[in-house]
Amino acid sequence: MDAIKTKSLDKIEHKMEEMDKNSLRYKILENARNFKTSWIELGRALYSAWKDKLYKEWGYNSFDTYTSREIGIRKQTALKLLRSYYFLEKEEPHYLKSDYTGSAQAAEIPSYESVDVLRLAKNKKSLDEEDYDNLKKSVFEKGKDAREVKRDLISLMRQREELEPEEAREKKKTAQVRRLIGALKSLKNEIGLSKTLPHAIIKDLDNLIDKLESEIG
Questions:
Q1: Percent of the chain's residues with pLDDT above 70
Q2: Domain coordinates of the chain in residue numbers?
């Protein structure tokens, strides 16, 4: 995790003296000062500032300029914070509840880098739900750092890529047939609503869909 340098800390504390302690802008600076132990709160506040473009009201033309000049964190770090926080909010909201963040020791709260790796894993189509759950446990329960979680993710992906050729082909076939069935059902519904084609064609589509569904059981 990036540590904010002393010069940046001095700058942050100086700005805090000039602001309303109840404002979001002050809260972001306060969270940035305590970056190592409160990245979740910083991510939450930054997300609000980014989503509502509040940084423009504070005299900055872009979010990147705001985070760099006022908070003292790099663009890449700011983006990871946003992505990691949003991922938790969307996929794992339990870990954002005050009873979790308030009771967990700093060492037990996963880093934003680890959560970002978990976010990437969630989007990997080659991984199943069990794979993701195991990675999630390694992040939230075992406290693995980002490098370890990334190694686990790479290992899992390699295992999935080394499936027997026949099994891999069968999985690919099933996925393709499911997509085709979905497209045909959507097309059938559109034809039924618009009534642009004879009923016989809709019946043919039904028969084709039934045959395809029987192919994948």
A1: 86
A2: 7-100, 110-161, 165-215
